[in-house]
Amino acid sequence: MNPTITAFQRSPDGGRGLARDTRIRWALEEIGQPYDVRLVSFDQMKQPAHLALHPFGQIPTYQDGDLVLFETGAIVLHLAQTRPGLLPPGTHPARVATWVFAALNTVEPPIIEREAAILMESDTAWHAQRLPMLNDRIRARLSALSARLDGRPWLEGAFSAGDLMMISVLQRLRSSGLLQEYPALAAYVARGEARPAYQRAFAAQWAINGAPE
Amino acid sequence: MNPTITAFQRSPDGGRGLARDTRIRWALEEIGQPYDVRLVSFDQMKQPAHLALHPFGQIPTYQDGDLVLFETGAIVLHLAQTRPGLLPPGTHPARVATWVFAALNTVEPPIIEREAAILMESDTAWHAQRLPMLNDRIRARLSALSARLDGRPWLEGAFSAGDLMMISVLQRLRSSGLLQEYPALAAYVARGEARPAYQRAFAAQWAINGAPE
C-alpha cells in the first residue's frame, strides 16, 4: 500500500505551490515513491480525527502503515532515509539534516513573520514602520546563505533533502522582491524548480489548487 | 577525542540556561558522552573561522573529528543516534524527530517572535497593542500541546530527544506567565528539569554564565 499524505482541500495560495504538502510531494517524487493524497478542509483539520494525526491541526501528515508523522522536516528526513535520492552518497546524513533544520529554523522564521505581518497587521498604524525591520532580518539570512553557497550548485555536494527544504523556503519570497537582491539565490531556486521531480510535485498540487473550479 | 561544542563566552541570559548550548549539553549528558566546550565572543561569531563552522554566525556548533554540525535540532538528533538515551526502544525514531521539529518549528517561533517584540519594539507606539496578539498565538500552541500530553509523562512513551527539545522551548516562557496557565505543561517542564542530566547541563553553563565575574 502507498503512504498517504494530507493536503488542503483548497490551498489558500491558489496553486502557487507554497503549501507544505508540496515539499512532501517533491521529496516523494525525488525518491520515486508513489503516494496517495487525502484532502482535508479547514474544518476537518480541527476535528478529533485529524488532531489524532496532527496535534496542532495542520497539514501535511504522513501515514505509512502504523507510522504516522507530522512536521514537514521530519517527514522529508524520514523519506530521505527510506530510498536513495535525497541523501547524496559521501555526505554525512547529519549534514543534510543540519541544512533541513537551517532552512526551517534559521531562514524561514523571519519570512513567516513578514507574511504574518502582511496578513494580519496591514491595516495597523505600525505596519509601514515595521516592514523594513522585517525585511532587514530576512536580508541578514539571505546574505549569509548566499555567501555560503559561493558558486556551489547545491549546499552539500549533490542535491539533497537540505536543498529541497531550503529552496522551498526561499520560494516564499518570490513576491517580496527580496530574493532578486541575491542573484545566486534566485539562480539556486531556479535550479531546484527545474528538477523533473519538482515539476511533477508542482503539477500535482496545481491540479487541486490552481485549476479553475 | 571528545566532541567539541561552542557556546557564548558570556550568555545574554546571565545563566538562566536559555542559550542553545544548554540543549546540546543536556543531550550529551543524557547519552553519557563527555565533551569539550570552546567559548566564542560575539565578535568571534562573525569572523571567518567561526562562519566556516556556522554560516549564520551563531552558537552552538558541534565538531567530532571531520564532522561539523550546526543547528541545535540536527545536533540533538545526531546525538540521539550515536548512543542510547534519547531514542526510547519501541518508539520509531521518526516519531521522535517529529517532536523535535514540532518544538522548533511549531511551538518555538511564536515564542521567539514575542521575545523579539519585547527586545526590539518595547519603545514603539504599537507594542502594547501587538503583545496580546502574540500571546494568543502562543496560547494556541500551548493549548494543543497540553491536550496532546493528556496525562502522559512524556510525548512518546519514555523520555526522548523530542521531550528534551520541547521542554527546552517551553522554558523560554518562564518569565511570561503563559506557561502557568497550563498546569500540565508547567509540570512537564518541571519533570524535565528534575532529570540529573539536565541538572548537570544547567550547572555546566551556570559555571560560565551565571557565576559572578
Automatic annotation (TrEMBL), chains A, B:
**Leader sequence segment:** none
Identify the domain of life.
Bacteria
Give start and end of each GST N-terminal domain: 8-87
Stretches that traverse the bilayer: none
Q: Which InterPro entries match?
A: Glutathione-S-Trfase_C_sf, Glutathione_S-Trfase, Glutathione_S-Trfase_N, Thioredoxin-like_sf
Q: Which PANTHER family match?
A: GLUTATHIONE S-TRANSFERASE GSTA, GLUTATHIONE S-TRANSFERASE-RELATED
Q: What is this protein called?
A: Glutathione S-transferase family protein
